[in-house]
Amino acid sequence: MEARASAKYLRGSSQKARLVIDMIRGKNVNQALAILRYSNKRAAIGIEKCVKSAIANANETAEKANIAVDPDELWLKAAYVDRGPTKNRRRLRPAPQGRAFRQQRHFCHVTILLSSEKPDDKTKPDVKATAPIVSRKAKRGGAAAAPRAKSATSKSETAKKAEGTEAEKSPKGEATKKGATARKASKPETGKKESSAKSDKAKGRKKSGE
């Protein structure tokens, strides 16, 4: 069961009233009233009256629906503050050297929603099972969050594989390699032939001189 109450045109800005509302949101009614009673904020007086009004509304709705509700077991399901009007409610404050500062009088609207169910009773979706596990070091960043470097052995293996694939893809390279090896093998033979021819010429000259 739920009950609602609102207090409108409370003196003070909505920003200051939210400081008080944040302290009592999601708590038990008795705890909220104790916090508001011993709070030094001016907005706590109007918010306390609004909470008591919501409790009275809950008892009345329970009686109409013929439901037994214990007011001590009520919880603040929702509590929020809206901004009120400031038009035609401005004042002037004296300032030095004959000047005047504009001072606005703010108002706010408070709404409180009570429920007989605890906020923890709702079943929450299992987010931990779907979300990946991240370590604290990875969240901080730095060297721990960087990807790990591959080892030297893995690099050498990848390089060999790349060379093998390049050789398979390019048959022209193999042909050029074979031609180069054949040329190297043929060079020393030509050198031997030239040397033998020179020696024969020298022998012929010697014979002619004799």
Can you describe what's shown?
Helix 2 (29-37) runs antiparallel to helix 3. The strands form two sheets. A three-stranded antiparallel beta sheet has the order 1-5-2, with helices on one face. Strands 3-4 form a two-stranded antiparallel sheet. It is built from six helices and five strands. The model has no long low-confidence stretch (mean pLDDT 77). Helices cover 50% and strands 18% of the residues. By secondary structure, it is an alpha+beta fold. It has helices at 14-24, 29-37, 43-64, 136-140, 152-169, 171-209, and strands spanning 2-11, 75-83, 90-94, 100-104, 107-115. The chain has two domains: 2-118, Alpha-Beta Complex (Ribosomal Protein L22, Chain A), CATH 3.90.470.10; 168-209. It is elongated and about 135 Å long.
Mean pLDDT: 77
Number of helices: 6
What is the 3D shape? elongated
**Residues in helices, as a percent range:** 40-55%
* Low-pLDDT regions: none
- By DSSP, the count of extended strands is 5
Largest sheet: 3 strands, antiparallel
Q: Indicate the structural class.
A: alpha+beta
Query: In CATH, what is the homologous superfamily of the largest domain?
Result: Ribosomal protein L22/L17
For the biggest β-sheet, the strand order reads 1-5-2
Total count of domains:
2
